[in-house]
Amino acid sequence: MKKIYYYLIGILLLILAFVFDNKIVLFFTSFRADFLTNLALFIHDIEGYMLFAFILLILLLFKQKNKILPLILAFVLYTVLTLLLKNIILRPRPFEKLNFEIVGNEINLNKSFPSGHATAVSSVIPFFNFNKILYYLWIIIAVLVSLSRVYLGVHYLSDVIAGFLLGYFIGDLSIYIIRNGGDKSSIN
To answer: Is 44 an active-site residue?
Structure first.
């Protein structure tokens, strides 16, 4: 299946998520357990720059030096676009709108849409196209990170789906821009 179909499916899921956002958040937050909450809070504490440093190490370990510049571009694009969209859309976080208690003491109070965690973690998926195991493993990690945001009540499902789509697009776009700005054979 071509990538365009995946993007279209993602957009359809995003539209569907908007319809049921409140119910989905309340469903997720009703199943809180200490282990899951601690895991979600651990994920919450991982910052974007830490993620990109980790991915940089993986790329160097697998001798994928040709993806370092696109990774830097992806980091810049993810940071700028996420902050820009949050400040344009100004969507309140679920715990603000639905009036339930949040877990953790340092939840960022900036706006909700799109999820910065989902955008960051999914923006690096395209960089693993050289290794199917890493590629699919990272998709699983990205989904778990995204769902942890809903579980904590700091994002709606539509926030994380939008972040996931935006992030994957940013990763693809970063690789495309660098590939077409220089030697077209330098990036897989």
So the answer is: no
